[in-house]
What does this fold into?
Amino acid sequence: MHPTSPRGRTIRRLEGTPSTIIRRGSEIEQLGTDMIESAATLRAIADGAAGQRGLAMAELRDVVGDVHEELRRAGEMYRPTGPVVRAYGEALAEVQPRIDRRAETCDELWQDYLATPGFLEGERPPYLTPSDPEGDEASAAAAQDRARQAAYDAWEDEAELFDRDVDTWEEAFEHAAANVGEVLDGRIEDGFWDRVDGFVAGTLEVLKIVGIVLTIAAIIVGGPLVAALAAIVSIATLVLTVYQKARGDTGWKEVILAGIAVIPFGSLGKLGSAKFADSVLGGLLTGAGRSAIRTEISTVFGSGTAAFRFSGSGVVGIRNGLSHLVRNHGTDGRLVDSLARLFTGKAASAAASGAPADIVIGTIWTQLGRVNTGLSWGTGQGLWSSLYDGVVGADR
It folds into this structure.
């Protein structure tokens, strides 16, 4: 195996075609000049159309608009970038042949080293060391070792020259990159809405994780607080997805799937009523729903605060509050309530008082939703997404 250079680099030929880079630099510079001249021409046309009437003139002014400003800005970035690229190409043309020659010579010298018998200084094993240091065998072994050491030193000297030439190339590359950065510095900036788009995309990623956590919590914990949080996350996801669609950053598929997540299918019997809307929002629309949420929050924080005051330990306070949070809220006991949530998505008391159709639909939808969540983990392609692609098409 060919070793690395003294500085740890792989010894090989340098990729790149200097003539192509030099030509591209000249083309970029000329393109920048052409863009600036075209911008001036467009502005002259727009200025010449000022004060003139007619549909053609109005259309011309609308088309030209402020395009000349953007075109001029682009030209002012391109034109000074061209010479930087061309200078790098010229530096590459100078150093590349030297690096390639060094790489070839290093390979030849390394093969010579491998073919030379003997050992490097200090590497000859004791069992191959002649017993008589003054004898002919010892002299022959020493001569072999000197020849092998000389072959290695010749390779190492050439490898150091290879490193030196690569340093020259890296300096040229870094100089070109720094100069391009100075040319573009402050000229390309994200607008306000671009920054908003980035924030929305990041928020949606966070909401996906929160949604998974709440899906698990709905099975284990349940209760009005989890229902309200899940509803808020679903609605926030829908709103942000609609925003992305309006900005052209996503498609109808994502909007439809986000809308499905908002619908409380276990409450279809209330469709069109205020109670259905209240279910969509997790009970936040009605006084009774808000009261249940406040009671649950008060119980959780109250129990945690009481435990903290009694024990003086913050850990005990938090643990006691969480223990109240994860308790089931049905009237039929923890096991029955957990089973009810697992199958229907509702507490036992809520399921017992619901309409049969709502219970059946809610149960089916709850299980399908959990299959969707399970399939989405690690793939991003859940059940609903797969069904959408199969029915509507993956490209729509």
Q: What stands out?
A: The mean pLDDT is 77. Residues 91 and 171 are 10 Å apart (CA to CA). The chain is about 75% helix and 0% strand.
